[in-house]
């Protein structure tokens, strides 16, 4: 009876070990992909790869998206205002 539970315990421990190794490999690869994306984006735009810079970039792109949505609603004046604000925020950020 002792051998049966020993075998079950070893099999369970080995399963957990493989599961943890697989998750570490997955999240390690995901981390490399995200850091490569952020580094490539910041190098191309000439901005610092900091969280604040990326938040300002996302905010500027959101403003431009609001301009596109306003154009689709045929609100030209509002679209020009959103586009101006988005371009202003992105021009502050990009060198």
Kindly describe this structure.
Keywords: Membrane, Transmembrane, Transmembrane helix. The chain crosses the membrane at residues 7-27, 47-64, 76-94. The protein is mostly helical and 95 residues long. The chain folds into two domains: 1-45; 48-95. Helix content is 88%, strand content 0%. It is built from three helices and no strands. The chain has helices at 2-45, 51-72, 76-93. Helix 2 (51-72) runs antiparallel to helix 3. The longest helix is centred in the N-terminal third of the chain and has 44 residues, at 2-45. The chain starts with a helix and ends with a helix.
What are the key terms here?
mainly alpha, membrane, 2 domains, 88% helix, elongated, single chain, 3 helices, transmembrane helix, 95 residues
Number of domains: 2
Structural class: mainly alpha
Instruction: Give the distance, in angstroms, between the N- and C-terminal Cα atoms.
Output: 72 Å
**Uncertain runs:** none
Q: Would you count the extended β strands for me? A: 0
- Biggest pleated-sheet summary: none
Task: Give a short synopsis of this structure.
The chain crosses the membrane at residues 7-27, 47-64, 76-94. Keywords: Membrane, Transmembrane, Transmembrane helix. The chain is mainly alpha-helical.
SSE map:
Elements (H helix, E strand, L loop, with lengths): L1 H44 L5 H22 L3 H18 L2
